[in-house]
């Protein structure tokens, strides 16, 4: 009987101690080019400010403070990042996806309703109310959200399985693209009149 061999198409681990992102590099790679290791300093591996509350005075009532490779160059090639999420009472972190990362959420303060939706054809909502100290995981690429169901501010820390997880906020992308997606397409997709689509687009 013939043997079958499986080969991995990616490295299982970094090939060097670190690859601190080089700001302004003209080299284009899948990730960011590395600084000369001899010029690397402790500040390349440090980020300050997650103890500061985010400003939730906006239409959705939330603020996400990311710590990705863009804010912390030492994350380059390490496959992790994080974020602080502040949510005002009854505010939301709107439905969104991370195309390149699974997310694990830890509630530090308050009460959060969280949920994600499975892919077609089931589109099943899996949701739960979280209290301080609770953890919830959102699988990579699935639409998910958080909502503060308490009377005080909620704070959470998210750990993400990518140095650059990306964020696709569903409403912004669908109704706020530039140029706009055709009214005909969105009206048919959402089964509503074109005037409804136009009204929603005007808010983005």
From TrEMBL:
Molecular function per GO: manganese ion binding
Top-level division of the source organism's lineage: Eukaryota
Residues engaged in binding Mn(2+): 96, 98, 103, 144
All copies of domain Cupin type-1, residue ranges: 48-198
A Gene Ontology term for the protein's cellular component: apoplast
Record localization: Secreted, Extracellular space, Apoplast
InterPro entries from the UniProt entry: Cupin_1, Germin, Germin_Mn-BS, RmlC-like_jellyroll, RmlC_Cupin_sf
Positions with a binding annotation for oxalate: 93, 98, 103
SMART domains per record: Cupin_1
Keywords, in A-Z order: Apoplast, Disulfide bond, Glycoprotein, Manganese, Metal-binding, Secreted, Signal
Family per record: Belongs to the germin family.
Primary role: May play a role in plant defense. Probably has no oxalate oxidase activity even if the active site is conserved.
Protein known as: Germin-like protein
């Amino acid at each position: 009987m013939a043997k079958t061999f499986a080969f991995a198409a990616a490295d299982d681990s970094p090939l060097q101690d670190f690859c601190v992102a080089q700001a302004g590099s003209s080299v284009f790679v899948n990730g960011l080019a590395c600084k000369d290791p001899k010029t690397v300093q402790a500040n390349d591996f440090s980020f300050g400010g997650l103890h500061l509350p985010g400003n939730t005075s906006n239409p959705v009532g939330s603020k996400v403070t990311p710590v990705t490779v863009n804010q912390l160059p030492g994350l380059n090639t390490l496959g992790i990042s994080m974020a602080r999420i502040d949510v005002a009472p009854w505010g939301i972190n709107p439905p969104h996806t991370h195309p390149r990362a699974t997310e694990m959420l830890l509630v530090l303060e308050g009460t959060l309703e969280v949920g994600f939706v499975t892919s077609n054809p089931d589109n099943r909502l899996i949701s739960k109310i979280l209290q301080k100290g609770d953890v919830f995981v959102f699988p990579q690429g699935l639409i998910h959200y958080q909502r503060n169901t308490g009377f005080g501010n909620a704070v959470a820390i998210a750990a993400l399985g990518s140095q650059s997880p990306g964020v696709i906020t569903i409403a912004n992308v669908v109704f706020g693209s530039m140029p706009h997606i055709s009214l005909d397409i969105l009206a048919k997709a959402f089964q509503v009149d074109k005037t409804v689509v136009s009204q929603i687009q005007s808010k983005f």
